[in-house]
């Protein structure tokens, strides 16, 4: 090697011109490797320092913590109220439908019982005896009352011979032989 040759180059004719010698190349590789390791160490240190600084602003009671907590609580409140409202409406509809069905059934029974007497809605006397004629109903009603007749004492009742759709009456004939027998006063 001559004094005029730059370091890392050889004058040896058997080596190609401009080729690096093996001794100085390994030091350059070590230097690059060292720089890479230093960059990794600096990057890791920066990561952990940044992480610890970033996380500390979210410690309980700090502004960032309270900001995130309040946003989550508000959002959770809205979602919870919305879901609760929907569930309440659904269970309210079910309970309302059940109560309405029961109330409607009771009203229907009362209305139906009163509708039996529709043609004769007035004039009934509690405790009196009646003969009623059942007729064919309409509009989903099976039967109706066609006629009614209040029973009276001392009257005989029978289906008329000449018209089987009516009731004939006749006074009870009292014979002198039947007076005072068969009953107690």
In short:
The chain is an alpha+beta fold.
Give a description of the structure.
The protein is of the alpha+beta class. The chain has 2 helices and 4 strands. The strands form 2 sheets. It has a two-stranded antiparallel sheet. The chain has a two-stranded antiparallel sheet with strand order 3-4. The longest helix is centred in the middle third of the chain and has 53 residues. The chain is rod-shaped and about 160 Å long.
Provide key terms for this protein.
single chain; 185 residues; alpha+beta; two-stranded antiparallel sheet; two-stranded antiparallel ribbon; rod-shaped
Gyration radius over CA: 57 Å
Strand content: 5-15%
N-to-C series of helices and strands: HHEEEE
Biggest sheet strand line-up: 1-2
The biggest beta sheet, please?
A: 2 strands, antiparallel
Number of helices: 2
**How much helix is in the residues?**
40-55%
Report mean pLDDT, rounded to a whole number: 78
Spans where pLDDT lies below 50 across 5 or more residues: 17-21, 180-185
Which class of secondary structure composition applies to the elements?
alpha+beta
Distance between the termini: 163 Å
Overall shape: it is rod-shaped
* Beta strand count: 4
